């Protein structure tokens, strides 16, 4: 699940070419753009359309679940990435 199945491949998000293409089975690996300072070789997670996210840092034994809803009242009003990074950075500082 956490082995990089796309090692060496370019990122697939044309809007964010600096993002890594590192993906395991159903999760992304070591993605600072939403994992903040929790990102690292043993970190995996997932984001969803509405802005929710899951980050698991197996080295520190930390789990972060952020429940947001950027789709209400419409789909274009918010970028939830800064909130993800801020929450992850707070947890990384305490963990």
Describe the structure.
This protein is of the alpha+beta class. It has one domain (28-94). 19% of the residues lie in helices and 18% in strands. The protein is built from two helices and four strands. It has helices spanning 32-35, 81-94, and strands at 28-29, 43-47, 53-57, 62-66. The chain has a four-stranded antiparallel beta sheet, with helices on one face. Strand 3 (53-57) and strand 4 form a beta hairpin. The longest helix has 14 residues, at 81-94. It is globular. The relative contact order is 0.18. This is Beta-lactamase-related domain-containing protein. Residues 1-21 are annotated as: Disordered. Residues 16-87 form the Beta-lactamase-related domain. It holds the Pfam family Beta-lactamase.
Summarize it.
The protein is α+β, with helices and mostly antiparallel strands. The chain has helices at 32-35, 81-94; strands spanning 28-29, 43-47, 53-57, 62-66.
Number of strands: 4
Rounded to an integer in angstroms, the radius of gyration calculated over CA atoms is: 13 Å
Major beta sheet, strand line-up: 1-2-3-4
Give the overall average pLDDT. Answer: 87
Question: How large a portion of the residues is in β-strands, by DSSP E?
Answer: 15-25%
Question: Per the principal axes of the C-alpha atoms, what is the gross shape?
Answer: globular
Task: Flag low-confidence runs.
Answer: none
Report helical residue fraction.
10-25%
Q: How many helical stretches? A: 2
Structural class: alpha+beta
Report the major sheet: 4 strands, antiparallel
Number of domains: 1
Write down the secondary-structure element order.
EHEEEH
Distance between the termini: 24 Å
